[in-house]
Amino acid sequence: MAADLRFVTADDVETQVFDWGTIKWMSEARVTGAVRSAGGVVILAPGKGHARHNHPGSDEILYFISGSGDQMVEDDSGEPVVRHLTAGDVAYIPEGVYHSTVNTTWEPLRILAIYSPGGPEAFLRSLPDCTIVPAGELPPR
Asked: Which pTM does this prediction carry?
């Protein structure tokens, strides 16, 4: 795919599939050529979430599009702070800070994830539990 798109649809990009849900990186170096940021839609399956992790060198913004869940972000002393977030809420995670997200409902949780600078999205793609579904194909259910 050309890394110079200005307008991107979901069918233009691959889907990263994990046991907890899916991600479509709508803007990243491989798609739009963007390096100062990356953005994508994360869908967490009901009752699922991802483990505590961090992104050294990148801030992350999570905008909750639909559904709700528990968002953990560690404070400056490393203590976990959990908030129940729902559509319209935002979590800001500074670079290197540990965090996790869990869908606490029966319906999918949709989140817009933005990294600044981009980079963590490429790392996710390399994980052994990541299955890549090519652009334009539906992920298995």
From this structure: 0.93
